[in-house]
Amino acid sequence: MTSSTSRYSDYDPWAWLYNRSEAHLALQGLMPLLDKLLFPHLPENGQILDVCCGTGQVSKQLIQQGYQVTGLDGSEKMLHYARENAPQGKFLLDDARSFTLPSTFDAAISTDSSLNHIMSLDELQQVFQNVYAALKQGGRFLFDLGLENRYRNIEVNDGELQADYAWTVGETYDADNKTGTFTITLFQPADSDASPSLTNSDKRSHSIPQRLKRFVYNRVLRVLRPGLLPQLIDKYWQSLPMTFTAKPYSQAEVRAALEVVGFTQVEVYDFRARRATPQRKDYAYFLAQKPSGQA
Ligand SMILES: C[S@@+](CC[C@H](N)C(=O)[O-])C[C@H]1O[C@@H](n2cnc3c(N)ncnc32)[C@H](O)[C@@H]1O
Protein backbone atom coordinates (compact mmCIF):
# COMPACT_ATOMS: atom_id res chain seq x y z
CA MET A 1 0.00 0.00 0.00
CA THR A 2 1.48 3.29 -0.98
CA SER A 3 -1.44 5.66 -1.32
CA SER A 4 -3.91 6.09 1.49
CA THR A 5 -6.68 6.53 -1.07
CA SER A 6 -6.15 3.26 -2.97
CA ARG A 7 -7.95 0.04 -2.15
CA TYR A 8 -6.18 -2.33 0.26
CA SER A 9 -5.58 -5.51 -1.71
CA ASP A 10 -2.51 -6.95 0.04
CA TYR A 11 -4.37 -10.16 0.96
CA ASP A 12 -4.88 -11.22 -2.68
CA PRO A 13 -1.76 -13.47 -2.84
CA TRP A 14 -2.60 -15.52 0.23
CA ALA A 15 -6.40 -15.56 0.00
CA TRP A 16 -6.51 -19.30 -0.74
CA LEU A 17 -4.19 -20.04 2.20
CA TYR A 18 -6.12 -17.77 4.56
CA ASN A 19 -9.34 -19.47 3.47
CA ARG A 20 -7.89 -22.89 4.08
CA SER A 21 -5.62 -22.53 7.08
CA GLU A 22 -6.34 -19.31 8.95
CA ALA A 23 -9.97 -18.31 8.76
CA HIS A 24 -11.17 -20.95 11.21
CA LEU A 25 -8.91 -19.38 13.87
CA ALA A 26 -10.84 -16.12 13.60
CA LEU A 27 -13.97 -17.98 14.62
CA GLN A 28 -12.55 -19.41 17.83
CA GLY A 29 -14.61 -18.11 20.73
CA LEU A 30 -16.23 -15.45 18.55
CA MET A 31 -19.82 -16.68 18.49
CA PRO A 32 -20.16 -16.89 22.31
CA LEU A 33 -18.75 -13.36 22.50
CA LEU A 34 -21.20 -12.02 19.90
CA ASP A 35 -23.96 -13.92 21.62
CA LYS A 36 -23.22 -12.04 24.80
CA LEU A 37 -22.29 -8.58 23.55
CA LEU A 38 -24.11 -8.03 20.27
CA PHE A 39 -26.97 -10.38 19.39
CA PRO A 40 -29.21 -9.42 22.36
CA HIS A 41 -29.36 -5.87 20.95
CA LEU A 42 -30.28 -6.82 17.38
CA PRO A 43 -33.72 -7.27 15.86
CA GLU A 44 -34.63 -10.60 14.30
CA ASN A 45 -33.27 -10.71 10.72
CA GLY A 46 -31.27 -7.57 11.49
CA GLN A 47 -28.72 -6.22 9.04
CA ILE A 48 -25.04 -6.61 9.89
CA LEU A 49 -22.11 -5.05 8.05
CA ASP A 50 -18.98 -7.22 8.23
CA VAL A 51 -16.13 -4.73 7.69
CA CYS A 52 -12.98 -6.39 6.29
CA CYS A 53 -14.95 -9.63 6.00
CA GLY A 54 -12.10 -11.56 4.35
CA THR A 55 -13.07 -15.04 3.20
CA GLY A 56 -16.51 -14.79 4.77
CA GLN A 57 -16.46 -17.50 7.44
CA VAL A 58 -17.68 -15.05 10.07
CA SER A 59 -20.35 -13.70 7.69
CA LYS A 60 -21.51 -17.27 7.16
CA GLN A 61 -21.95 -17.82 10.91
CA LEU A 62 -23.96 -14.59 11.19
CA ILE A 63 -26.22 -15.68 8.33
CA GLN A 64 -26.74 -19.01 10.08
CA GLN A 65 -27.89 -17.03 13.14
CA GLY A 66 -30.62 -15.50 10.95
CA TYR A 67 -29.04 -12.11 10.15
CA GLN A 68 -28.74 -10.42 6.76
CA VAL A 69 -25.08 -9.82 6.12
CA THR A 70 -23.17 -7.46 3.87
CA GLY A 71 -19.42 -8.07 3.80
CA LEU A 72 -16.95 -5.45 2.65
CA ASP A 73 -13.30 -6.09 1.84
CA GLY A 74 -10.51 -4.60 -0.24
CA SER A 75 -9.24 -7.92 -1.57
CA GLU A 76 -11.01 -9.31 -4.61
CA LYS A 77 -9.52 -12.75 -4.00
CA MET A 78 -10.67 -12.85 -0.37
CA LEU A 79 -14.16 -11.91 -1.56
CA HIS A 80 -14.10 -14.72 -4.13
CA TYR A 81 -13.94 -17.20 -1.24
CA ALA A 82 -16.43 -15.19 0.81
CA ARG A 83 -19.02 -15.54 -1.97
CA GLU A 84 -18.38 -19.29 -2.05
CA ASN A 85 -18.46 -19.70 1.72
CA ALA A 86 -21.52 -17.53 2.35
CA PRO A 87 -23.60 -17.49 -0.86
CA GLN A 88 -26.52 -15.81 0.91
CA GLY A 89 -24.37 -12.83 1.84
CA LYS A 90 -23.91 -9.67 -0.17
CA PHE A 91 -20.26 -8.80 -0.72
CA LEU A 92 -18.74 -5.46 -1.71
CA LEU A 93 -15.25 -4.79 -3.00
CA ASP A 94 -14.31 -1.54 -1.31
CA ASP A 95 -11.90 0.06 1.09
CA ALA A 96 -12.80 0.47 4.76
CA ARG A 97 -11.27 3.96 4.73
CA SER A 98 -13.37 5.31 1.90
CA PHE A 99 -16.66 3.38 1.57
CA THR A 100 -20.04 5.01 1.85
CA LEU A 101 -23.22 3.08 2.56
CA PRO A 102 -26.66 4.32 3.57
CA SER A 103 -27.63 4.16 7.25
CA THR A 104 -29.34 0.76 7.04
CA PHE A 105 -27.33 -1.47 9.37
CA ASP A 106 -28.32 -2.53 12.86
CA ALA A 107 -24.72 -3.44 13.64
CA ALA A 108 -21.25 -3.60 12.19
CA ILE A 109 -18.42 -5.92 13.13
CA SER A 110 -14.77 -6.27 12.20
CA THR A 111 -12.82 -9.33 13.35
CA ASP A 112 -9.39 -10.93 13.48
CA SER A 113 -7.47 -7.68 13.96
CA SER A 114 -8.41 -6.48 10.49
CA LEU A 115 -8.37 -2.84 11.56
CA ASN A 116 -4.72 -3.13 12.61
CA HIS A 117 -4.00 -2.90 8.88
CA ILE A 118 -5.20 0.70 9.00
CA MET A 119 -1.84 2.36 9.35
CA SER A 120 -2.66 5.73 10.92
CA LEU A 121 -4.98 7.01 13.59
CA ASP A 122 -6.48 9.51 11.14
CA GLU A 123 -7.40 6.70 8.76
CA LEU A 124 -8.75 4.59 11.61
CA GLN A 125 -10.96 7.52 12.54
CA GLN A 126 -12.10 7.71 8.91
CA VAL A 127 -13.09 4.01 9.08
CA PHE A 128 -15.07 4.73 12.26
CA GLN A 129 -16.75 7.66 10.50
CA ASN A 130 -17.77 5.45 7.55
CA VAL A 131 -19.12 2.74 9.84
CA TYR A 132 -20.97 5.33 11.92
CA ALA A 133 -22.65 6.69 8.77
CA ALA A 134 -23.73 3.17 7.71
CA LEU A 135 -25.40 2.41 11.07
CA LYS A 136 -29.00 3.09 11.96
CA GLN A 137 -29.62 5.18 15.04
CA GLY A 138 -28.78 3.06 18.07
CA GLY A 139 -26.69 0.70 15.93
CA ARG A 140 -23.64 -0.98 17.49
CA PHE A 141 -20.11 -1.51 16.24
CA LEU A 142 -18.02 -4.38 17.64
CA PHE A 143 -14.44 -4.98 16.57
CA ASP A 144 -11.20 -6.42 17.85
CA LEU A 145 -7.79 -4.81 17.74
CA GLY A 146 -4.24 -5.63 18.70
CA LEU A 147 -3.01 -3.11 21.28
CA GLU A 148 0.50 -1.78 22.11
CA ASN A 149 2.05 -5.07 23.19
CA ARG A 150 0.50 -7.17 20.46
CA TYR A 151 3.48 -7.48 18.12
CA ARG A 152 6.57 -9.25 19.33
CA ASN A 153 9.99 -9.87 17.85
CA ILE A 154 9.58 -13.56 17.23
CA GLU A 155 11.09 -14.77 14.02
CA VAL A 156 8.77 -17.70 13.44
CA ASN A 157 5.83 -18.29 15.71
CA ASP A 158 3.50 -20.55 13.80
CA GLY A 159 3.48 -22.80 10.79
CA GLU A 160 1.88 -25.78 9.10
CA LEU A 161 3.16 -28.63 6.97
CA GLN A 162 0.81 -30.21 4.43
CA ALA A 163 1.23 -32.63 1.55
CA ASP A 164 1.53 -29.95 -1.08
CA TYR A 165 2.23 -26.75 0.78
CA ALA A 166 3.64 -25.41 4.03
CA TRP A 167 3.78 -22.00 5.61
CA THR A 168 5.33 -20.14 8.50
CA VAL A 169 4.47 -16.81 10.02
CA GLY A 170 6.81 -14.60 12.01
CA GLU A 171 6.29 -11.19 13.53
CA THR A 172 8.57 -8.28 14.26
CA TYR A 173 7.95 -4.90 15.83
CA ASP A 174 9.61 -1.60 14.97
CA ALA A 175 9.26 0.39 18.19
CA ASP A 176 10.44 3.67 16.60
CA ASN A 177 7.72 3.65 13.96
CA LYS A 178 5.26 1.71 16.13
CA THR A 179 4.71 -0.72 13.29
CA GLY A 180 4.33 -4.47 13.44
CA THR A 181 5.30 -6.60 10.48
CA PHE A 182 4.33 -10.18 9.90
CA THR A 183 5.83 -12.26 7.18
CA ILE A 184 4.12 -15.35 5.89
CA THR A 185 6.42 -17.63 3.97
CA LEU A 186 4.66 -20.07 1.72
CA PHE A 187 6.51 -23.21 0.58
CA GLN A 188 5.33 -25.21 -2.42
CA PRO A 189 6.70 -27.91 -4.71
CA ALA A 190 8.61 -26.23 -7.52
CA ASP A 191 6.24 -27.67 -10.14
CA SER A 192 3.00 -26.51 -8.48
CA ASP A 193 0.87 -23.75 -9.99
CA ALA A 194 1.53 -20.20 -8.87
CA SER A 195 -2.09 -20.06 -7.83
CA PRO A 196 -2.34 -23.51 -6.29
CA SER A 197 -5.20 -25.85 -7.00
CA LEU A 198 -4.25 -27.93 -3.97
CA THR A 199 -5.55 -31.03 -5.72
CA ASN A 200 -2.29 -31.48 -7.54
CA SER A 201 -0.52 -33.18 -4.63
CA ASP A 202 3.12 -34.00 -4.66
CA LYS A 203 3.17 -37.83 -4.66
CA ARG A 204 6.41 -38.02 -2.69
CA SER A 205 4.76 -36.38 0.28
CA HIS A 206 2.21 -39.18 0.61
CA SER A 207 4.84 -41.69 1.72
CA ILE A 208 4.61 -42.88 5.33
CA PRO A 209 7.71 -40.95 6.51
CA GLN A 210 6.29 -37.80 4.95
CA ARG A 211 2.89 -38.32 6.56
CA LEU A 212 4.55 -39.00 9.89
CA LYS A 213 6.68 -35.89 9.53
CA ARG A 214 3.57 -33.80 8.87
CA PHE A 215 1.73 -35.35 11.77
CA VAL A 216 4.58 -34.77 14.22
CA TYR A 217 5.13 -31.22 13.03
CA ASN A 218 1.50 -30.17 13.06
CA ARG A 219 0.73 -31.82 16.41
CA VAL A 220 3.93 -31.35 18.38
CA LEU A 221 6.74 -29.33 16.87
CA ARG A 222 4.50 -26.54 15.64
CA VAL A 223 3.82 -25.67 19.25
CA LEU A 224 7.28 -26.35 20.65
CA ARG A 225 9.61 -25.32 17.83
CA PRO A 226 7.77 -23.68 14.93
CA GLY A 227 11.05 -22.48 13.41
CA LEU A 228 11.94 -26.08 12.55
CA LEU A 229 9.61 -26.12 9.57
CA PRO A 230 12.04 -24.96 6.85
CA GLN A 231 14.35 -27.84 7.79
CA LEU A 232 11.59 -30.40 7.42
CA ILE A 233 10.33 -29.56 3.98
CA ASP A 234 11.53 -30.98 0.71
CA LYS A 235 14.63 -29.21 -0.54
CA TYR A 236 13.00 -28.74 -3.97
CA TRP A 237 10.16 -26.70 -2.62
CA GLN A 238 10.17 -23.00 -3.44
CA SER A 239 9.51 -20.33 -0.86
CA LEU A 240 7.47 -17.18 -1.34
CA PRO A 241 7.58 -14.58 1.46
CA MET A 242 4.64 -12.17 1.83
CA THR A 243 4.92 -9.24 4.20
CA PHE A 244 2.09 -7.34 5.87
CA THR A 245 2.24 -4.32 8.11
CA ALA A 246 0.04 -3.66 11.09
CA LYS A 247 -0.39 -0.77 13.49
CA PRO A 248 -1.18 -1.34 17.14
CA TYR A 249 -3.28 1.31 18.91
CA SER A 250 -3.81 2.07 22.57
CA GLN A 251 -7.21 1.75 24.21
CA ALA A 252 -7.21 5.51 24.81
CA GLU A 253 -6.49 6.32 21.15
CA VAL A 254 -9.26 4.04 19.91
CA ARG A 255 -11.76 5.33 22.42
CA ALA A 256 -11.00 8.95 21.50
CA ALA A 257 -11.27 8.26 17.75
CA LEU A 258 -14.65 6.55 18.25
CA GLU A 259 -15.98 9.38 20.37
CA VAL A 260 -14.81 12.09 17.97
CA VAL A 261 -17.01 10.70 15.19
CA GLY A 262 -20.00 10.49 17.54
CA PHE A 263 -19.99 6.97 19.01
CA THR A 264 -20.99 6.73 22.65
CA GLN A 265 -21.03 4.04 25.35
CA VAL A 266 -17.62 2.78 24.30
CA GLU A 267 -16.75 -0.37 26.26
CA VAL A 268 -13.64 -2.53 26.10
CA TYR A 269 -13.71 -6.30 26.61
CA ASP A 270 -11.34 -9.25 26.62
CA PHE A 271 -11.84 -12.36 24.50
CA ARG A 272 -14.19 -13.86 27.06
CA ALA A 273 -16.45 -10.81 26.91
CA ARG A 274 -15.30 -9.64 30.35
CA ARG A 275 -14.64 -5.92 30.86
CA ALA A 276 -10.99 -5.15 30.15
CA THR A 277 -9.03 -2.91 32.49
CA PRO A 278 -7.38 0.22 31.02
CA GLN A 279 -4.03 -1.56 31.60
CA ARG A 280 -4.80 -4.22 29.03
CA LYS A 281 -2.23 -3.91 26.25
CA ASP A 282 -2.44 -7.06 24.13
CA TYR A 283 -5.82 -7.51 22.46
CA ALA A 284 -9.23 -6.11 23.09
CA TYR A 285 -12.75 -5.97 21.72
CA PHE A 286 -14.36 -2.55 21.47
CA LEU A 287 -18.11 -2.07 21.50
CA ALA A 288 -19.55 1.34 20.64
CA GLN A 289 -23.00 2.68 19.91
CA LYS A 290 -24.38 5.28 17.53
CA PRO A 291 -26.76 7.31 19.70
CA SER A 292 -30.47 6.98 19.11
CA GLY A 293 -32.16 10.08 17.76
CA GLN A 294 -29.28 11.25 15.54
CA ALA A 295 -28.77 11.15 11.79
C1 LIG B 1 -6.98 -10.96 9.03
S1 LIG B 1 -8.13 -10.81 7.69
C2 LIG B 1 -9.65 -10.99 8.59
C3 LIG B 1 -10.81 -11.42 7.75
C4 LIG B 1 -12.12 -11.68 8.51
N1 LIG B 1 -12.57 -10.48 9.20
C5 LIG B 1 -11.97 -12.82 9.49
O1 LIG B 1 -12.21 -12.61 10.69
O2 LIG B 1 -11.66 -13.93 9.06
C6 LIG B 1 -8.04 -9.08 7.36
C7 LIG B 1 -8.92 -8.63 6.19
O3 LIG B 1 -8.99 -7.21 6.23
C8 LIG B 1 -9.00 -6.74 4.90
N2 LIG B 1 -8.58 -5.33 4.94
C9 LIG B 1 -7.51 -4.80 5.57
N3 LIG B 1 -7.49 -3.46 5.38
C10 LIG B 1 -8.56 -3.15 4.61
C11 LIG B 1 -9.09 -1.93 4.11
N4 LIG B 1 -8.48 -0.76 4.32
N5 LIG B 1 -10.23 -1.98 3.40
C12 LIG B 1 -10.85 -3.14 3.15
N6 LIG B 1 -10.39 -4.34 3.60
C13 LIG B 1 -9.26 -4.33 4.33
C14 LIG B 1 -8.02 -7.66 4.18
O4 LIG B 1 -8.20 -7.63 2.78
C15 LIG B 1 -8.37 -9.00 4.82
O5 LIG B 1 -9.36 -9.67 4.09
Automatic annotation (TrEMBL):
GO molecular function, one term: methyltransferase activity
CDD domains the UniProt entry points to: AdoMet_MTases
GO biological process, one term: methylation
Domain Methyltransferase: 48-139
Xref: Pfam families: Methyltransf_25 (PF13649)
Keywords: Methyltransferase, Plasmid, Transferase
PANTHER family for this protein: TRANS-ACONITATE 2-METHYLTRANSFERASE, TRANS-ACONITATE 2-METHYLTRANSFERASE-RELATED
Protein name: Methyltransferase domain-containing protein
Organism lineage: Bacteria, Bacillati, Cyanobacteriota, Cyanophyceae, Acaryochloridales
